[in-house]
Design a protein that fits this description.
The protein is of the alpha/beta class. The chain contains eight helices and 19 strands.
Length: about 350
Protein backbone atom coordinates (compact mmCIF):
# COMPACT_ATOMS: atom_id res chain seq x y z
CA UNK A 1 0.00 0.00 0.00
CA UNK A 2 1.05 3.61 -0.60
CA UNK A 3 0.19 7.01 0.78
CA UNK A 4 -0.21 9.68 -1.90
CA UNK A 5 0.74 13.23 -1.01
CA UNK A 6 -1.65 15.33 -3.06
CA UNK A 7 -0.98 18.79 -4.52
CA UNK A 8 -3.29 21.69 -5.21
CA UNK A 9 -6.47 22.59 -3.37
CA UNK A 10 -8.99 20.29 -5.08
CA UNK A 11 -8.45 16.90 -3.48
CA UNK A 12 -11.16 15.02 -5.36
CA UNK A 13 -9.68 15.98 -8.72
CA UNK A 14 -6.12 15.24 -7.53
CA UNK A 15 -7.14 11.81 -6.25
CA UNK A 16 -9.00 11.05 -9.46
CA UNK A 17 -5.99 12.04 -11.58
CA UNK A 18 -3.78 9.84 -9.38
CA UNK A 19 -5.80 6.91 -10.71
CA UNK A 20 -3.89 7.34 -13.98
CA UNK A 21 -0.78 6.06 -12.18
CA UNK A 22 -2.14 4.09 -9.22
CA UNK A 23 -4.77 1.46 -8.49
CA UNK A 24 -7.30 1.51 -5.69
CA UNK A 25 -6.99 5.23 -4.94
CA UNK A 26 -9.03 6.42 -1.95
CA UNK A 27 -9.13 9.86 -0.36
CA UNK A 28 -8.44 9.49 3.37
CA UNK A 29 -7.83 13.06 4.62
CA UNK A 30 -7.28 16.60 3.31
CA UNK A 31 -4.31 16.35 0.95
CA UNK A 32 -3.78 12.60 1.48
CA UNK A 33 -4.96 9.53 -0.42
CA UNK A 34 -4.11 5.84 -0.27
CA UNK A 35 -3.40 3.50 -3.17
CA UNK A 36 -3.14 -0.26 -3.36
CA UNK A 37 -0.36 -0.19 -5.95
CA UNK A 38 1.55 2.13 -8.28
CA UNK A 39 1.82 1.49 -12.00
CA UNK A 40 5.14 1.66 -13.83
CA UNK A 41 8.60 0.32 -13.22
CA UNK A 42 10.06 1.58 -9.93
CA UNK A 43 6.79 3.41 -9.21
CA UNK A 44 7.61 5.73 -12.13
CA UNK A 45 3.99 6.39 -13.02
CA UNK A 46 3.75 8.94 -10.21
CA UNK A 47 6.43 11.05 -11.88
CA UNK A 48 4.12 12.26 -14.62
CA UNK A 49 1.21 13.31 -12.39
CA UNK A 50 0.30 16.98 -12.06
CA UNK A 51 -1.51 16.97 -8.72
CA UNK A 52 0.37 14.35 -6.70
CA UNK A 53 3.59 15.37 -4.98
CA UNK A 54 4.84 11.91 -4.04
CA UNK A 55 3.99 8.31 -3.22
CA UNK A 56 5.17 6.81 0.08
CA UNK A 57 5.43 3.10 0.79
CA UNK A 58 3.06 2.71 3.72
CA UNK A 59 4.38 1.94 7.21
CA UNK A 60 1.44 2.95 9.42
CA UNK A 61 -1.62 5.15 9.74
CA UNK A 62 -2.67 6.61 13.07
CA UNK A 63 -4.10 9.69 14.78
CA UNK A 64 -2.60 13.08 13.99
CA UNK A 65 -0.52 13.55 17.11
CA UNK A 66 3.15 12.91 17.80
CA UNK A 67 2.64 10.32 20.53
CA UNK A 68 0.44 8.16 18.29
CA UNK A 69 2.91 8.44 15.41
CA UNK A 70 5.82 7.44 17.65
CA UNK A 71 3.95 4.44 19.02
CA UNK A 72 3.00 3.32 15.50
CA UNK A 73 6.59 3.59 14.25
CA UNK A 74 7.95 1.66 17.22
CA UNK A 75 5.50 -1.17 16.55
CA UNK A 76 5.96 -1.29 12.77
CA UNK A 77 8.11 -3.98 11.12
CA UNK A 78 11.05 -2.38 9.30
CA UNK A 79 13.35 -4.35 6.99
CA UNK A 80 15.66 -1.50 5.93
CA UNK A 81 19.10 -0.42 7.05
CA UNK A 82 21.34 2.55 6.37
CA UNK A 83 20.92 6.27 6.82
CA UNK A 84 17.64 8.08 7.20
CA UNK A 85 16.02 11.51 7.31
CA UNK A 86 12.56 12.30 8.66
CA UNK A 87 10.38 14.89 6.96
CA UNK A 88 7.04 15.86 8.52
CA UNK A 89 4.36 17.98 6.90
CA UNK A 90 1.34 19.57 8.53
CA UNK A 91 -0.94 19.40 5.49
CA UNK A 92 -2.38 22.87 4.87
CA UNK A 93 -1.71 23.63 8.55
CA UNK A 94 -4.83 21.69 9.49
CA UNK A 95 -3.32 19.65 12.36
CA UNK A 96 -2.53 21.02 15.83
CA UNK A 97 1.02 19.65 15.87
CA UNK A 98 4.64 20.78 15.57
CA UNK A 99 6.41 19.23 12.61
CA UNK A 100 9.80 19.90 14.24
CA UNK A 101 8.70 17.93 17.30
CA UNK A 102 7.39 15.12 15.08
CA UNK A 103 10.67 14.91 13.16
CA UNK A 104 12.78 14.78 16.32
CA UNK A 105 10.62 12.16 18.00
CA UNK A 106 10.32 9.91 14.94
CA UNK A 107 14.03 10.28 14.19
CA UNK A 108 14.84 9.17 17.72
CA UNK A 109 12.78 6.01 17.21
CA UNK A 110 14.70 5.20 14.02
CA UNK A 111 18.06 5.80 15.71
CA UNK A 112 17.00 3.40 18.47
CA UNK A 113 16.26 0.86 15.73
CA UNK A 114 19.76 1.09 14.26
CA UNK A 115 19.56 3.86 11.67
CA UNK A 116 22.02 6.74 11.31
CA UNK A 117 20.68 10.20 10.55
CA UNK A 118 21.81 11.91 7.32
CA UNK A 119 19.82 15.02 6.49
CA UNK A 120 21.69 15.75 3.25
CA UNK A 121 21.84 12.46 1.36
CA UNK A 122 19.97 9.73 3.24
CA UNK A 123 19.42 6.19 1.98
CA UNK A 124 15.78 6.44 3.04
CA UNK A 125 13.36 9.27 3.77
CA UNK A 126 10.56 8.74 6.26
CA UNK A 127 7.62 11.00 5.45
CA UNK A 128 5.01 11.86 8.07
CA UNK A 129 1.85 13.56 6.82
CA UNK A 130 -0.49 15.02 9.42
CA UNK A 131 -3.93 16.33 8.48
CA UNK A 132 -7.23 17.13 10.10
CA UNK A 133 -10.56 18.26 8.64
CA UNK A 134 -13.29 17.22 6.29
CA UNK A 135 -12.57 15.18 3.20
CA UNK A 136 -13.74 16.59 -0.12
CA UNK A 137 -17.00 15.29 -1.55
CA UNK A 138 -17.29 13.74 -5.00
CA UNK A 139 -19.31 10.81 -6.33
CA UNK A 140 -16.52 9.55 -8.60
CA UNK A 141 -13.79 9.34 -5.94
CA UNK A 142 -13.62 6.65 -3.26
CA UNK A 143 -13.46 8.14 0.22
CA UNK A 144 -14.57 11.60 -0.94
CA UNK A 145 -17.55 11.62 1.42
CA UNK A 146 -17.21 14.91 3.27
CA UNK A 147 -16.59 13.19 6.60
CA UNK A 148 -14.28 14.61 9.30
CA UNK A 149 -10.95 12.89 9.84
CA UNK A 150 -7.69 13.30 11.76
CA UNK A 151 -4.79 11.29 10.37
CA UNK A 152 -1.05 10.79 10.46
CA UNK A 153 0.47 8.60 7.76
CA UNK A 154 4.00 7.26 7.95
CA UNK A 155 5.77 5.99 4.86
CA UNK A 156 9.06 5.66 3.02
CA UNK A 157 9.29 8.05 0.08
CA UNK A 158 9.07 5.80 -2.99
CA UNK A 159 8.51 8.19 -5.89
CA UNK A 160 8.19 11.93 -6.36
CA UNK A 161 6.47 13.80 -9.16
CA UNK A 162 8.89 15.26 -11.69
CA UNK A 163 6.66 18.30 -12.37
CA UNK A 164 8.49 18.70 -15.68
CA UNK A 165 5.76 20.74 -17.33
CA UNK A 166 6.18 22.85 -20.42
CA UNK A 167 7.00 26.52 -19.75
CA UNK A 168 4.15 28.91 -19.05
CA UNK A 169 2.24 29.72 -22.26
CA UNK A 170 3.56 33.29 -22.44
CA UNK A 171 7.13 31.96 -22.54
CA UNK A 172 6.61 29.65 -25.52
CA UNK A 173 7.51 30.49 -29.13
CA UNK A 174 3.81 30.58 -30.08
CA UNK A 175 1.26 32.06 -27.69
CA UNK A 176 -2.36 33.19 -27.80
CA UNK A 177 -4.41 34.62 -24.89
CA UNK A 178 -6.54 32.11 -23.00
CA UNK A 179 -4.00 29.28 -23.09
CA UNK A 180 -4.29 26.66 -20.37
CA UNK A 181 -1.93 26.40 -17.38
CA UNK A 182 0.64 23.59 -17.89
CA UNK A 183 -0.29 21.68 -14.71
CA UNK A 184 -3.94 21.55 -15.72
CA UNK A 185 -3.05 20.44 -19.24
CA UNK A 186 -0.85 17.68 -17.79
CA UNK A 187 -3.67 16.42 -15.58
CA UNK A 188 -6.14 16.32 -18.47
CA UNK A 189 -3.86 14.39 -20.80
CA UNK A 190 -3.12 11.94 -17.98
CA UNK A 191 -6.84 11.33 -17.62
CA UNK A 192 -7.10 10.76 -21.38
CA UNK A 193 -4.41 8.06 -21.23
CA UNK A 194 -1.23 9.84 -22.30
CA UNK A 195 1.69 7.56 -21.41
CA UNK A 196 4.56 5.69 -23.05
CA UNK A 197 3.12 3.36 -25.67
CA UNK A 198 -0.20 5.21 -25.88
CA UNK A 199 -1.54 7.68 -28.44
CA UNK A 200 -3.85 10.60 -27.68
CA UNK A 201 -5.63 12.92 -30.07
CA UNK A 202 -6.44 16.60 -29.60
CA UNK A 203 -8.86 17.57 -32.39
CA UNK A 204 -8.96 21.27 -31.37
CA UNK A 205 -5.33 21.79 -30.42
CA UNK A 206 -5.15 25.61 -30.42
CA UNK A 207 -1.63 26.61 -29.35
CA UNK A 208 -0.75 23.00 -28.47
CA UNK A 209 -0.83 23.05 -24.67
CA UNK A 210 -2.46 19.64 -24.36
CA UNK A 211 -0.32 17.92 -27.03
CA UNK A 212 2.79 19.40 -25.40
CA UNK A 213 2.05 17.79 -22.04
CA UNK A 214 1.16 14.47 -23.70
CA UNK A 215 4.51 14.49 -25.48
CA UNK A 216 6.38 15.36 -22.29
CA UNK A 217 5.10 12.18 -20.61
CA UNK A 218 6.36 10.23 -23.66
CA UNK A 219 2.93 9.70 -25.18
CA UNK A 220 2.47 9.73 -28.95
CA UNK A 221 0.34 12.63 -30.17
CA UNK A 222 -2.01 13.43 -33.03
CA UNK A 223 -3.35 16.98 -33.15
CA UNK A 224 -5.39 19.07 -35.52
CA UNK A 225 -7.09 22.45 -35.66
CA UNK A 226 -9.33 24.26 -38.14
CA UNK A 227 -7.03 27.30 -38.21
CA UNK A 228 -3.77 27.12 -40.15
CA UNK A 229 -2.01 29.51 -37.74
CA UNK A 230 -2.79 27.21 -34.82
CA UNK A 231 -1.39 24.23 -36.71
CA UNK A 232 1.81 26.14 -37.43
CA UNK A 233 2.04 27.37 -33.84
CA UNK A 234 1.47 23.95 -32.31
CA UNK A 235 4.18 22.48 -34.52
CA UNK A 236 6.55 25.25 -33.43
CA UNK A 237 5.87 24.60 -29.74
CA UNK A 238 6.21 20.83 -30.09
CA UNK A 239 9.50 21.16 -31.94
CA UNK A 240 10.80 23.41 -29.17
CA UNK A 241 9.95 21.21 -26.19
CA UNK A 242 9.37 17.59 -27.21
CA UNK A 243 12.72 15.86 -27.87
CA UNK A 244 13.29 14.72 -31.43
CA UNK A 245 14.27 11.32 -30.05
CA UNK A 246 11.08 11.13 -28.00
CA UNK A 247 7.51 10.17 -28.88
CA UNK A 248 6.03 10.70 -32.32
CA UNK A 249 3.69 13.58 -33.03
CA UNK A 250 1.67 14.71 -36.03
CA UNK A 251 -0.18 18.02 -36.44
CA UNK A 252 -2.48 18.78 -39.36
CA UNK A 253 -5.24 21.16 -40.30
CA UNK A 254 -8.57 19.43 -39.93
CA UNK A 255 -12.21 19.48 -38.87
CA UNK A 256 -12.93 17.95 -35.46
CA UNK A 257 -16.33 16.78 -36.76
CA UNK A 258 -14.81 14.87 -39.68
CA UNK A 259 -11.51 13.33 -38.66
CA UNK A 260 -9.34 11.53 -41.24
CA UNK A 261 -8.76 8.64 -38.84
CA UNK A 262 -9.88 5.02 -38.78
CA UNK A 263 -12.20 3.69 -36.09
CA UNK A 264 -10.38 3.12 -32.78
CA UNK A 265 -7.23 4.75 -34.16
CA UNK A 266 -6.13 6.24 -30.81
CA UNK A 267 -6.22 5.36 -27.14
CA UNK A 268 -7.81 8.58 -25.94
CA UNK A 269 -9.08 11.99 -27.01
CA UNK A 270 -8.63 15.24 -25.10
CA UNK A 271 -9.82 18.69 -26.15
CA UNK A 272 -10.57 22.15 -24.82
CA UNK A 273 -13.80 23.20 -26.54
CA UNK A 274 -14.28 26.80 -27.73
CA UNK A 275 -15.97 28.94 -25.12
CA UNK A 276 -19.44 30.43 -25.43
CA UNK A 277 -18.31 33.97 -26.11
CA UNK A 278 -17.55 32.71 -29.62
CA UNK A 279 -20.92 32.18 -31.31
CA UNK A 280 -19.44 30.66 -34.45
CA UNK A 281 -16.27 28.69 -35.02
CA UNK A 282 -15.17 28.35 -38.64
CA UNK A 283 -18.23 27.00 -40.46
CA UNK A 284 -19.92 25.47 -37.39
CA UNK A 285 -22.28 26.72 -34.73
CA UNK A 286 -20.78 25.93 -31.33
CA UNK A 287 -23.35 23.26 -30.42
CA UNK A 288 -22.90 21.53 -33.78
CA UNK A 289 -19.13 21.65 -33.44
CA UNK A 290 -19.16 20.16 -29.95
CA UNK A 291 -21.72 17.49 -30.80
CA UNK A 292 -19.88 16.50 -33.95
CA UNK A 293 -16.50 16.44 -32.20
CA UNK A 294 -17.89 14.25 -29.43
CA UNK A 295 -19.36 11.83 -31.97
CA UNK A 296 -16.07 11.60 -33.87
CA UNK A 297 -14.16 11.14 -30.63
CA UNK A 298 -16.43 8.20 -29.75
CA UNK A 299 -15.65 6.67 -33.14
CA UNK A 300 -11.86 6.88 -32.84
CA UNK A 301 -11.25 6.23 -29.12
CA UNK A 302 -12.80 4.45 -26.12
CA UNK A 303 -12.06 7.33 -23.72
CA UNK A 304 -12.17 11.12 -23.87
CA UNK A 305 -11.62 14.16 -21.69
CA UNK A 306 -13.51 17.32 -22.61
CA UNK A 307 -12.82 20.72 -21.09
CA UNK A 308 -15.29 23.57 -21.63
CA UNK A 309 -16.86 26.63 -20.05
CA UNK A 310 -20.17 24.80 -19.51
CA UNK A 311 -21.57 21.37 -18.79
CA UNK A 312 -21.89 19.40 -22.06
CA UNK A 313 -23.11 16.15 -20.51
CA UNK A 314 -26.33 15.94 -22.58
CA UNK A 315 -24.33 16.33 -25.81
CA UNK A 316 -21.82 13.73 -24.63
CA UNK A 317 -24.55 11.18 -23.93
CA UNK A 318 -26.17 11.89 -27.28
CA UNK A 319 -22.83 11.12 -28.94
CA UNK A 320 -22.61 7.70 -27.27
CA UNK A 321 -20.58 8.45 -24.16
CA UNK A 322 -21.15 7.66 -20.51
CA UNK A 323 -19.82 10.14 -17.95
CA UNK A 324 -17.27 8.54 -15.65
CA UNK A 325 -16.60 11.78 -13.76
CA UNK A 326 -17.42 15.48 -13.94
CA UNK A 327 -15.49 18.27 -12.24
CA UNK A 328 -15.81 22.04 -11.98
CA UNK A 329 -12.45 23.80 -11.77
CA UNK A 330 -12.39 27.52 -11.09
CA UNK A 331 -9.77 29.40 -13.12
CA UNK A 332 -10.68 32.96 -12.12
CA UNK A 333 -13.74 34.99 -11.20
CA UNK A 334 -15.24 34.89 -14.69
CA UNK A 335 -14.23 31.39 -15.77
CA UNK A 336 -14.94 27.97 -14.32
CA UNK A 337 -13.87 25.04 -16.45
CA UNK A 338 -16.14 22.01 -16.66
CA UNK A 339 -14.20 18.78 -17.11
CA UNK A 340 -15.90 15.62 -18.32
CA UNK A 341 -14.16 12.25 -18.28
CA UNK A 342 -15.99 10.07 -20.77
CA UNK A 343 -16.06 6.36 -21.48
CA UNK A 344 -17.56 5.02 -24.68
CA UNK A 345 -20.99 3.58 -24.02
CA UNK A 346 -21.08 -0.19 -23.94
CA UNK A 347 -24.13 -2.19 -24.96
CA UNK A 348 -26.28 -2.87 -21.91
CA UNK A 349 -24.42 -0.33 -19.75
CA UNK A 350 -26.39 2.24 -17.80
CA UNK A 351 -23.51 3.61 -15.70
CA UNK A 352 -23.30 7.39 -15.72
CA UNK A 353 -22.44 10.13 -13.30
CA UNK A 354 -24.90 12.91 -12.67
CA UNK A 355 -27.74 14.30 -14.68
Amino acid sequence: MYWLELAGETDAFAAYEAGAAAAGVELIAPGIASAGSIRGADDSGVGRLAYTRAAHEAIARTDDDVASAVAALRAAPIDRTGTVAVRARNVRNTADVSTNEAERALGSVLVDRGFSVDLDDPDHVLRALLAEGRRAEHDAVDGADGESTAVCTLGWVASEAARDFAPNPTDRPFFQPGSMAPADARAYVNLAGAAPGGTVLDPMCGTGGLPLEAGLVDGDVIACDAQAKMVRGTRENLREYVPASGPTWHVARGDATDLPLADDAVDGVVFDAPYGRQSKIARHELSDLVGGALAEAARVAPRAVMIADRDWRPAARAAGWTVDAAFERRVHRSLTRHVLVLERERPGSDADLGT
